[in-house]
Amino acid sequence: MQHNGAQAMIELLHIYKEIRNDGLVVKILQDVSLSVTGGEFVAIMGPSGSGKSTLMNIIGFLDTATSGNYRFKGTDVSTLTEDELAKYRSSEVGYVFQAFHLLAKTSVLENVKLPLMYHAERRSDQERTTMAKKVIEQVGLGHRLEHLSNQLSGGEKQRVAIARALINNPSLILADEPTGNLDSASGIQIMQILQDLNRQGKTIILVTHESSTAEHARRVVTIRDGAIESDQQVTSQRRAVEETNLK
Ligand SMILES: Nc1ncnc2c1ncn2[C@@H]1O[C@H](COP(=O)(O)OP(=O)(O)OP(=O)(O)O)[C@@H](O)[C@H]1O
Ligand SMILES: [Mg+2]
Fold first, then answer.
1. How do residues 141-198 score in pLDDT, each as one tens digit?
2. Whose alpha carbon is nearest atom 12 of ligand 1?
3. 3-class DSSP state for residue 75?
4. Could you count the other beta carbons within 10 Å of the beta carbon of residue 34?
5. Which of 171, 144, 180, 182 is nearest to 160 (CA)?
6. How far apart are the CA of 63 and the centre of ligand 2, in A?
């Protein structure tokens, strides 16, 4: 294990995922080994069906590998009980998906407060409101607290989804094509929020089809046919150009 804060947060070793369908074995992930250190911003790219979402689900404790080893912050995930896994899902990870999954006809404030209801730590309604307002302001929607989810634009919905992902202060944000349903201006806004969160120390893993989106990350991993094809650091010079272009 490394020191000086460079300890691996995620260590996947020889991960295989297979699914049996009508007696047929579908190989979804094949020998994936990947290590992500706390504070990294990783983009995962690859063709449709290459296994990106499956990999994200395994990383986010929503699915399990058929074989291989997954350590999260040093703990072997396969040793966790269902209760412990539920705790990891609610306190270690914030999930952001392509479809926003907000509660329909429910206010921004209530949508963001919701995960606090499932958290082990019980809080008063007033406390939950204060916490929700803070993260809603962080994504620039302080003026939309009482708007219902169906009264928001796509970009605003995704910002609410990010606020909801942040409410339990997770160390890891998993974003599966978060800009996939958005126009390019809203997409850039979402990427800027993710970059800000990364600067604040959150580890971010982002799945994207678009190379322009992947360039916001510091590392790009490509997957093909369930296996890692390449894993490259994005040079700081390239990022500097990117960030200047955003201003
Ligand atoms: N429950 C399942 N049963 C059978 N096959 C599955 C199942 N879930 C996923 N697959 C297959 O596994 C492969 C990887 O799926 P996955 O959703 O991880 O791909 P992806 O890279 O996220 O694709 P996309 O870019 O389209 O979202 C696909 O070929 C898919 O059809
Ligand atoms: Mg997918």
1. 999 999 999 999 999 999 999 999 999 999 999 999 999 999 999 999 999 999 999 9
2. 28
3. strand
4. 20
5. 144
6. 14
Q: Looking at domain 38-61+93-246, which of 3.40.980.10, 3.40.50.300, 3.20.20.190, 3.30.1330.30 is its CATH number?
A: 3.40.50.300
Quick one: which atom of ligand 1 is closest to the CA of 177? 27
Distance 7 CA to ligand 1 centre (A): 31
- Give the separation between CA 158 and CA 156, rounded to whole angstroms: 5
Summarised one tens digit per residue, pLDDT across range 5-55 is: 457 999 999 999 999 989 999 999 999 999 999 999 999 999 999 999 999
Q: Is the CB of 170 under 6 A from ligand 1?
A: no
Element (H, E) at 33: strand 24-37
